[in-house]
Amino acid sequence: MSYEVQQFGNSACAPTAVGSRGDVQPMLTLALELRRRGHEVLVHAPSDFEAWAGDLGLPFRSSGVNTQEVLNEHREAIGGNPVRVLRALRDILFAEMPRAFDQTVEAARGMDVIVTAAQFAAHSVAEALRIPSITMMYVPTILRSAHHAPLMGKMQGAPRWLNRLRWKIADGAVQLLLGDVMNKERARLGLPPLANVSRHLFEERPALLACDPVLAPAPPDWNGYDVTVTGPLYYEDAAALDARVEAFLEAGPPPVYVGFGSMTSPDASRLTEAILEGGRGRRLLLAKGWAGIGGANLPGSVMVVDGPMPHAKLFPRVAAVVHHGGSGTTSAALRAGVPQVIVPHIVDQYYFAHRLQALGIAPAGIPIAKLTPERLARAIEAAIALPAAPRTAAAARLREGGGVGIAAQAIEKHVH
What we know:
- The strands form 2 sheets. This protein has an 8-stranded mixed β-sheet, sandwiched between helices. A 5-stranded parallel β-sheet has the order 11-10-9-12-13, sandwiched between helices.
- The longest helix is centred in the middle third of the chain and has 29 residues, at 160-188.
- It has 15 helices and 13 strands.
- The protein is of the alpha/beta class.
- The chain starts with a strand and ends with a helix.
């Protein structure tokens, strides 16, 4: 996904990203803030999000990719080992990289800066167009540190020496995965080949870290990087809760919310059964999501919603939030001060599960491959029983939600 901000003052900016709602929503928030500050914006994103951008009055240009279709095609790899995830990513990138470069070049012409969240073509395009670029991060593990594992690492809390080794291994894996296809596209732009793709993508330019600084702090060995910690970029959704959801909330005690967002599932029926059994005896509000949670003949204590629900309005009214641990849902649950259970599937979700447990905000995460009714039931009980003080402090810290303003100011600083 990319967003082009055309002509503010004597400058123009192009924020870019790829992915699902968790990647799109913060950048839409940024686009809205830049427009509010008098800048013109153009949204260039996966086709899944064209209607949403239109509803917000933002001009849209499709990147031609449908994220939900891509994830469904590779759903067997979701939650698998890092090798399976990397293989799926390789297949996706080899199919889409040429188009991504072409689309990004077309979108970025005439811009003065590109802001990118994991859009692999963006920095090369900026280099070819001789304009600066800025990296947007939703998790620290994108940027090298001995204090955390690389993005693909499931094992968290490892010694620093092991993390350093894992980063070296990750460098080699990324080079093997992306080196040929990236350098082929760079050659079409008249650019030299990359000896280290990882450093090109994440380390050679200013960065914005859009995370709660307590949950996901900038580590002390980032002294050589230019990183601005903005805090989360909250999308202030004006939509009200659906009347049926309101009626369900009013009909009994606060339910447990369960939703895995854009994470797909190879067996929706089995996943739904585990959730229903694990939540037995409680009211459940299920988000169908891309995993397809739900089904027929559900008890009256269970409601399934097919479509987004504004988290800021919903989460303060539930007993607990069971989710995949994506950065956006994690930040929304933190801001609501609600108990959380994390069921990580891929990449940054393992990091957030680890950090929430370390801060006393959530019990140990349950990897999706190990989710059982018994584990889910115990985790919900444990989450609700945890002392409220850590999550109350997080909610107070994040209440103002000023991250998007800080991000916009940082972008403007780099333009001028």
